Amino acid sequence: MSCYSSRVVAQQVVTGKITDHKTEIAVEYAAVTLTYGKSEKILMYTLTDQAGEFSLPCKEICDSLFLSVSLLGYKPVKIPAQTGQRLHIQLEQQTFSLKEVEIRPGRVWGRRDTINYDVASFISPNDESIKDVLRKLPGVDVSDLNGKISYNGKEISNFYVENMELMGGKYNQLAKGLKALAVDKVQILDNHQPVRMLRDKVLTENVALNIKLKPEFKDRWMGNISGGLGANKEQLLWESDANAIQISRKSQSAYFYKGNNTGDDVSLEQQDLTHSTTKTNKPSLHPFVPQLSLSSPLKRERTLFNNTHSVSGNRLYKLNETMQLKLNAGYIHDKREQEKGSETVYFFEEDSVLIREQRADVLHSNTANLQVQLENNADDHYLINKFSIDGDLQKGRSIYSGNKEIQQEIETQSFDARNYLQNMWKRKDYTYEFYSLMRFRHLPSSLKVDDRIRSVNLNHFYTDQAASLLRSRNFFTQKYTAGFTTETSNLKNGYSLFLNPFYQWKNTQWRTTLNLPVSWDRFQKDVFNHILFSPSFFVQFKPNYAWLFSASASHKEQPGYRLEFYNLPYFTDYRTQYTPNGQLSLQKQNYYSLYSEYKNVINEFFSSLSLNRYTNYSDQTTERVLYSDTISLVTHSLTNKGQGWNINGNISKGFFNLRLKIAFALSIASNKGEQLSDGLLIPYRYTYLQAEPKINWSPATGWEANYEAQIRRSLNRIGEHQKTVLINTIQKLNLSYTYKNLSAGTSLEHYYNQITPEKSLHTFFADINFKWKKDKWQIQAEAQNLFNKKQYAYIQYNNLERYSSWINIRPREFKVTLSYRF
Predict the structure, then answer these.
(1) Could you please report the per-residue DSSP string of 595-618?
(2) In Å, how far are 74, 92, 93, 99, 357 from 96, measured between CA atoms?
(3) Which of 37, 333, 470, 518 has its CA at 20 to 30 Å from residue 808's CA atom?
(4) What tens digit of pLDDT does each residue of 35-84 get?
(5) What is the 8-class DSSP label of residue 92?
(6) Three-class SS of residue 574?
């Protein structure tokens, strides 16, 4: 053991860092105890953090202090200490043996707000990326739709690798590209506060995920290069994939390319999965004419006929211990086709109208993004400047056939440039903050039906400037923010002045938060002139490490969509015309929530339950009127109300000896409202119950089984007479076996859909694959849709409308892929 110290400005605290004597790597979870005198009276106790740092406050400055450090596997250390002193202690490793005692290391362990998962205890031979392992972790769930990660029912707010956030919200690329064998452990950071100077001052409900690599995979390049060829009855198939990732102490890099025509929607990997929670996305805008939406309840790879190329580059420079520079850029070229048919029923008070149509869609899109971010995240100063540009050009063409053939073309463009600056600094007991957001958007759109073209354009410039003062003393934090926003557009110009008092009180078990934002929003010619008040209250009780209870209530007032300012009729597709009244709506919402969670980390058990209720109010109502083949949506200045409730529960349990994880999610929800149709208010109500069991099991060496299901029962009530109860289920089973260098797997899927109460449909799919691995090389052969299903049918409800649709499915396909990992 060696130790050296340096004297700093006198203060009643002992700080320091613990490292390994040989490797000089920071030692986490070391027990550090501060004692007094010969009696060794314990004054303070703590554990070192991820950087090996510790801090022990002391009430008095004295000369009889001792510091003790201990951790299993290292020689214990005891040295004299003084307040105002910073220590660097190096621990020497200690080898020992225990006789007749069996020590079983846990796969999951926790300390305070950090939960650790030992990846080596969960990984299997077929796990290529860390995303494959994340699905097996108790309490963690990964969405099959877009790769979004959640813990105990909460979506993560940050995705770190070695405590640095390279990808931002676009972490799906890195989760799929980072190989599982390179990861030592996965950490869940509960109540995560990313701004260091706000830790212990402003507590949050955020959950973050951190990846810790094995030492031998740091400071080196790792990646994958693969290519595949295949065929179905109609065309040749191809796919290619290349990535290179480097994680080091001073920098991080990740470069990705993917392309295919096999139905793999790689464009989703560049989707921002966390940005919606930040203030930089205000206000919400969209083009006048919505672009084609090619979707279905089936697994996306079954129905996507595509030709896609996706490329991105990401680089992070650690300029010093607190400052980082991050560069992210990406581009996607995508072409997708889809053929489908539908029967749409529009319900009225006494009768209904049925429209049948068949359509063939083609959608071309080109999307590019660039982001530059400079961040200084120090204990006494925080600075971030984020500049981004996003561009999108989409051209969709649809050919409708029915009573007559109609050709529709929709072109939408989006240009979004924004800069966000935030600066925070300390002065004694006060924290000062200033932030500035500037955002410009250009959103032209055009609709061409046969030979007639209609174009509508939106240009919008938005600024948000504010300053705040924060003081945190003892257990109480208060923050006051004041600022203004401005909006300039080709519709209406406006501004707002706002004040936001924020109060938070906390102790070891309780936390309460009161937020009282008030604003004056005004647009020119007084088309909207309101004082808006949106208070919220939150209380949390955490009696111990395992249990947590919280309750919240909020009232929110805000202006409606800016497109409501437009006062001329326009078409959103070939048969839907929207007629706004030129007035911006006032929208209000009351929201109430109860939440509880329980976790037993040693027993790998995690659960959560939430109950929520809400009421919505708007001073505008949209009436639906049917004229021959045209649907007209007309806005009126009439009150519109709706309400609903939902219950959500999650349970996840891991079984160490069985290598088993089971999870169960339950959702029950109901919402009701009224729709103005042909001058009459027709009530509607939609209620559903959805259960989602999941099982991941490795019963023996080489074997792995995954089962998941979605069981949904829905009740749709329209008016006083229309009532429909439908049951839909989805079941998926994946089996695999690995023996030495060979592995084989199969995937089985079953879909049960009630098209009507009297008619139901069963659909089965089966896929198989074989893999051969040798060192860094892998060859995979696979066959999909072995039963060669051609179409899939389903039904959906939306207020007073019912859609019964069928969609074409990719035929039976065969493919061989060669991969090289380094």
Answers:
(1) EEEEEETTTTEEEEEEEEEEEEEE
(2) 10, 13, 10, 10, 76
(3) 333
(4) 887 767 777 878 888 788 988 887 655 667 888 998 877 888 999 888 88
(5) P
(6) coil
